[in-house]
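Thread: "does anyone have the structure for this chain?"

Original post by V.I.:
We have the sequence but no experimental structure in hand. Need at least a predicted one for the grant figures.
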Amino acid sequence: MRLALDEHTLNELTIPQPEQPYAVLIGLDSLQGLQAARVLARRGVPVIGLARDRQDYYARTNVCQAVLFTETETPALIDTLEALGPKLGPKAVLFPCEDANVLLVSKYRERLAEWYHILLPEHQVLETLMDKERFYRFAQEEGLPIPTTFMVHSRQEMEQAAQEVEFPCIMKPPLSAAPEWEANTIAKAFLVRDREELLGLYDRYHRWAPGFIVQNWIPGPDTNLFSCNCYFDRHGRPILSFTTRKLRQWPPTTGQSCLSQMEPNPIVEQATLDLYRRVQHRGLGYLEMKLDARTGKFLIVEPNVGRPTGRSTNGEAAGLELLYTIYCDLLGWPLPENRLRRPTVKWIHLRRDFQSGLWHWRRKELTLAQWLRSWRGPKAFAVFSWRDPAPFLWDVARVIRLLFSSEERAKRQYDRPLQAESKRA
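Reply from O.Q.:
Generated one for you, tokens below.
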């Protein structure tokens, strides 16, 4: 069932009553939303997906009992969830899958509590962890390991930062998911070579952001990037955690993972658990860290909270049932026994890894044989699925279509040789 929701549709909507409670995913039109839906559906959990974009390739999945199209980044989402709640039967488990709907669900959690199981930290904690400026100020105050960081709110402050920061450096907005920022660029961060470039980027992008974070670049290859996914129960106990290592990313240098693998890293795992214990966290947590090639120390890149991440399924493929553990925990059911570790499992976003591999091959940094060898071993795919092929096929078709769109090409024009983080590119 695929419905675009309005007041009339909601009033007429009939939801089949399953034998066990629904998992309601907000943000099905995202990589983490698609993956969460597939993981839970494989465990026999009935899934309802909420998405904003009817044309999005992620929302083409066939694993949901229903896909409902509605606003997911405005308070209208809360109205939809309130109207949907009484139709679901047993109290459902709510999985927000994008930053914007995490914040909305947190802000209005009391209105939703009658119909949905929700586990998030206190709203103030959530905002501190999700807003980059607030988090880096917190990290500075607490002495957490971060690169040298400057908070910039004006041209004058950017000129001062340009005098003090080391180049190359990183420039990024405090909230890259802000609507005005996303409407004008897909970039989440820029790698900047020199002072003139930094000031030029500020002049170009400052109208779409309330400020910027400028940080020293952490030297080292992509393979120095590690992340830890974790889950804290309502009592603040860490129930499950695992670490992964990036092998390649797209775009290169400052992009999102397209090939990663399970790899134990006690330093990163302990730093993640210590951070979330310190803020009395509840629910899903994630922390990315990078090994500084000069000092041999790990520095924090950024946290994500309250939602699955793209690499959550890296753990799922390794026998760590993260999302089903959350579902069972919030329902008060016994936790799944299958929480074993197989560190060699790899996670691959086929299309992005093709782009990344081609980029490195053109620069003679990767041979075809090395590329193919990097895929060896047990694998989990980000988008591709024989049982659910539509999202992958629509993604390929979308990329071909974008090649002929001048507007989309303009949003993907980075000042070369800058590389920018992208959600979808």
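V.I.: this helps a lot. Residues 261 and 307 are 20 Å apart (CA to CA).
O.Q.: and The chain has 17 helices and 18 strands.
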